[in-house]
Amino acid sequence: MKIYVTSVPVKDQDKALDFYTQVLGFIKKKDVPLGEHKWLTVVSPEEQFGVELLLEPMAFEPARLYQQSLKEAGIPWTSFAVDDIEKEYQRLSTLGVEFSIPPREAGNVMIAVLDDTCGNYIQLMQEL
């Protein structure tokens, strides 16, 4: 058994696709129309046949409430690994990405938390 797809809820799939590809650097993998929404996934350019991240539309009210509650509490929806958190922080900051937590040590990792502009905080993590 392996993880094939995981998801992050987004308020606007097109805006999310732009942010996750043009800013974060992921690659669009699938874009399948499904009525008013679509099955829209992105992958890491380093693992194009790895786990897909579904940019899942917020069409379920309890999910919207959960997303909002996490964000209000400052809790990231998910975490992405990076090789050099300081370099990634500088690159993303230059692109206008807002961080709620700049890079800092947290045990045996460095973390930073960014706003994905789609309703979520996303944690970046670098193992030390």
TrEMBL record:
InterPro entries according to UniProt = Glyas_Bleomycin-R_OHBP_Dase, Glyas_Fos-R_dOase_dom, VOC_core
Which residue ranges does the record assign to the VOC domain?
1-127
Q: Which domain of life is it from?
A: Bacteria
Question: What is the name of the protein in this document?
Answer: VOC family protein
Organism name: Thalassomonas actiniarum
